[in-house]
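stuck on this chain:
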Amino acid sequence: MVFPLRFHHHGHGSMDNPTFIVIIVIIAICLIIYHLYFTKQARVLRALKTTEEKDIDQIKTGDRVRVTGTVQLLGTTLNAPLSGRKCAYWHVFVESRSGKSSYTIADEEEAGDVILKKGPHIVVVRTRKINTYLLKDANYSSGFLNDATDTLKRYLKKHNAKSTDLLGMNRSITYEEGVLEEGETVSVAGVAEWVSKSKFRFKSPGDKILTITASEQDPVYMTDEPGV
């Protein structure tokens, strides 16, 4: 007797639905964790929120503290490169996009004298070693039917970039700028040091001025995000 041959086909090449869903969920969770804990914004805000804020009169040299005050343009000031605003500090981020890909043209920040007023006290922020998260409150773009302004073109040229491609077509570029302006509320965290006011050019009540500095291990952290 001849038995007919039977072939059983097992499908390959497509992932089981439950497995695929689990992988998607894991990726989503990883992205959320990255955003909450590892981005520059997350690191800065976490460092500020976990540092104690003390009454300035209770602060001693060497204390690690958080101070929140308002910006005073008493020392060296800057003009932000995109908006021209007078400020104590600026951060510019410029990105070019093409389809789903993007690359950073500029991620640049510059400090003048960052000086805060807290009640009757003046606080000087040492910016030599600093991690910042500034709200980007000036936003520009150039691209299809939207030429870059002369100011934007000049800024791109500084970074060896152009607003157009080899064919003369506008590239899709976004420009973001954040600044610390007069009267703006800012939070900083770092190591406290009381310094004689004779070391500074501006007037201040009291004989000493509180400065916030970096430690060997940690930079100063600074943000203008409200509610930190």
Remarks:
- Residues 7-14 have pLDDT under 50 and may be disordered.
